[in-house]
Amino acid sequence: MKFKFEKLIVWQKAMDFGEELNVITKKFPDAEKYNMSSQIMRAVDSVALNISEGSIGQSNPEFKKFIGYSIRSLAEVVTCLHKVRRRKYIYDEEFDKLYNYAFNLMNMLIAFRKNIK
Fold first, then answer.
1. Residue 45 Cα to chain centre, angstroms
2. Do 54 and 62 meet the contact criterion of CB atoms below 8 Å apart?
3. Model pLDDT for residues 75-94, shown as the tens digit of each residue
4. Helices in the chain by DSSP H: which ranges?
5. Under DSSP, is residue 109 helix (H, G, I), strand (E, B) or coil?
6. Are the C-beta atoms of residues 77 and 102 closer than 8 Å to each other?
7. Mean pLDDT, the chain, integer
8. Rounded CA gap, 14 and 105, in Å?
9. Residue 117: is its pLDDT beyond 80?
10. Per-residue pLDDT for 57 more than 90?
11. Which are the contacts of 43, defined by CB distance < 8 A and separation ≥ 6?
12. pLDDT of 72 above 80
């Protein structure tokens, strides 16, 4: 691994979460292709993208700011998950699994941000 963000477990988890949601969104109705599918994918991809962007050549306060953007994007993903569950695009079991992953990732991001000095 040549970039320091590639070693970050929080980045790796964010990448995994994005790929998992990519599989899930492919099952949404065609009418949602440019709506909820697109929205949830942009939000979840922003989590990992902001971690990597903030880690490269930034000051620690700037890095913290980008981790904050990741946290906000993850909150958007959680709201999208609630929306797709209400629309019955995912089952409760899928929602619970994804929600718990998001909850754990959120806690990791918050702890990671606190440890940036």
1. 6
2. yes
3. 999 999 999 999 999 999 99
4. 9-25, 36-55, 60-86, 92-114
5. helix
6. yes
7. 96
8. 7
9. yes
10. no
11. 73, 74, 76, 77, 80
12. yes
Q: From residue 56, give the alpha-carbon distance in Å to each of 26, 60, 74.
A: 32, 10, 21
CB 5 within 8 A of CB 56: yes
**What are the tokens at 61?**
């306060």
Model confidence band, residue 101 (pLDDT cutoffs 50, 70, 90): very high
Place of tokens 């971690």: 51
- Decide if 50 contacts 70 (C-beta within 8 A): yes
Q: Is pLDDT of 58 > 80? A: no
Identify the sign of the CA torsion 8, 62, 81, 37.
negative
Of 97, 108, 110, 116, which is closest to residue 23 (Cα–Cα)? 97
